[in-house]
Write a structure and sequence with these properties.
two-stranded antiparallel ribbon; DNA-binding; 3-stranded mixed sheet; alpha+beta; 2 domains; homodimer
Chain lengths: 139, 139
DNA sequence: CTTTGTGCAAACGATTTGCAGGATG
DNA sequence: CATCCTGCAAATCGTTTGCACAAAG
């Protein structure tokens, strides 16, 4: 996919959700899509303003909130007191290295599916996520 | 187990970890052990001071931190921006109702174990946890 | 031109810290 | 009696909010 196509793809996604396409919102979403780590709001802000000022702090926070509401982005909880964001919408699990903090995505199919029947009577399962803790190949 | 035995059990656990047994620390840990929900620091503070002032805010926070460091207590991440605590050390998973927020423990054995072999080459698995989202029997 | 988004700075809630006095082992 | 813990209040961190102005459709 060319650079240009990627841009159009993002614009299409935002419009499809009824969002106005502003440079700041575009930048936040594009940044999240192009990164493979799971950055915090602060990480994104830093990255966007690395070269030239692009967005303010408040705008990054509000963009993330908006993108989350329309399900283009989701929050990931892997560490205590840290909110991370992820634009990978395909269901997947996470592997976090306890030593260096690196986070790797684990494809949904990579795990044998759980047998969730009759877990707790009367409770309906919507979805589930697995977080694996361990040591990565470099630690 | 009698009330008295429970108290002695707690004192033994704290001493075994090299911690001094203060009334405040005792109260925080005992409170957490006797509750089946997964309270926040604030919840614990409220509960302890319900009848008579027992601990200050700073002390509850510091006790939780200390108890966590010695592995008598662990943090649970189930909702965005909320830190909950749990003194149940037996490995278990969590089920959270998306409607009322109720959290239920799922015994480790209740889930068919995951096949975690060959997940990612070079990565060693320490442990994993499953968070299930759904609707509880009362919602 | 109407509506929505941005940026600033102030407000906020949860958690942490500095420090003096108090309790524990 | 040395060390560790507590409580208060102030500091800090991440996030949210109010509001005037700017930009998008």
């Amino acid at each position: 996919m060319t650079m240009q196509q990627q841009r159009e793809e993002i614009i299409r996604a935002l419009k499809a959700k009824g969002l106005r396409v502003t440079p700041q919102r575009f930048a936040v979403y594009a940044n999240l899509l192009h990164r493979c780590d799971h950055p915090t709001a602060e990480d994104i802000l830093q990255d966007l303003n690395r070269v030239a000022p692009t967005s303010s702090q408040a705008t990054v926070y509000s963009s993330l909130q908006t993108l989350r509401q329309v399900n283009l982005v989701r929050e990931v909880l892997l560490e205590e007191g840290v909110r991370r964001y992820d634009a990978n919408l395909k269901p997947h699990h996470h592997f976090r290295c306890q030593y260096c903090g690196t986070i790797a995505d684990i494809a949904w199919q990579a795990l044998a599916h759980l047998d969730l029947k009759n877990l707790k009577s009367g409770w309906q399962i919507q979805d589930y996520e697995v977080t694996i803790h361990g040591r990565c190949d470099r630690c």
